[in-house]
Amino acid sequence: MNITQSTEPGNIVGNKVVLRPIKEEDLQIFMTWVNHPEIFHYLNKTMPITFEEELAWYYRSKQNPKDRIDFTILDKETENPIGTLGVHHMDNINGVAYTGTIISTEYQCCGYATEAKMLLLNYVFSHYNVRVIYSYIKGYNEKSIAYATKCGYKEITRFPKHYFRESDGKYHDRVIMVVEKDEWIRDYWTEYTKRYNL
After folding, report:
1. Contact present, 82 and 73 (Cβ < 8 Å)
2. Distance (Å, rounded) from C-alpha 139 to C-alpha 161?
3. Are 188 and 151 in contact (CB under 8 A)?
4. How far apart are CA 88 and CA 99, in angstroms?
5. Neighbours of 3 (CB within 10 A)
6. How far apart are CA 75 and CA 19, in angstroms?
7. Torsion angle in degrees (nearest 10) through CA of 83, 89, 94, 96
8. pTM, whole model, 2 decimals?
9. What is the domain partition of the chain in residue ranges?
10. Cβ proximity of 15 and 118 under 8 Å
11. Per CATH, the architecture of 12-196 is what?
12. Per residue of the chain (198 residues), what is the pLDDT tens digit?
């Protein structure tokens, strides 16, 4: 299956998912994901997100489009939104950026998020002066650590006892993971495209 792309973000099409730029109409379902109890405690939030806050974030992100790229993840078969991901704080001078993903609980561990992240990384590395992408993950979020590792990220350090988790009354590490362009293309993307016929 071909991947269709444009330098000004349009739709990116894979086998299982389509990445398309976020629309205002997506925000309501974003809130259900962000505020879901199985997702919320992995985010850097202390209170549930309101629609007004989500709308304000959406318009702030539009004010500096060169700094970030945000996509809604669609199930290719149904065309329904199933998650969101993006790259933010893009520094095209130093070639550094940061990434994050939220996927609906019913679509987790099914390959959708992996394909979405691989498509995103390929898009960013192909169209922007980005050579390194970081991801910050809470140490107890074992699924996200495994997901990032599968997509080619490597753990480079931890900030010990960085987060307090109210549910267990303990402090947990902040895990810093990174993916480097040249190594990723050589060791992950080339193999991934062959395996899944992208």
Report:
1. yes
2. 9
3. yes
4. 6
5. 17
6. 9
7. -30
8. 0.88
9. 12-196
10. no
11. 3-Layer(aba) Sandwich (3.40)
12. 444 444 456 899 999 999 999 999 999 988 888 776 776 556 666 667 788 888 888 888 888 777 899 999 999 999 999 999 999 999 989 999 999 998 998 888 899 999 999 999 999 999 999 999 999 999 989 999 999 999 999 999 999 999 888 778 889 999 999 999 999 999 999 999 999 888
CA distance 176 to 186: 22
Backbone phi, psi, residue 162, to 5°? -85, -30
Query: In Å, what is the CA distance from 27 to each residue of 56, 130, 158?
Result: 11, 28, 32
Say if residues 53 and 62 touch (Cβ distance below 8 Å).
no
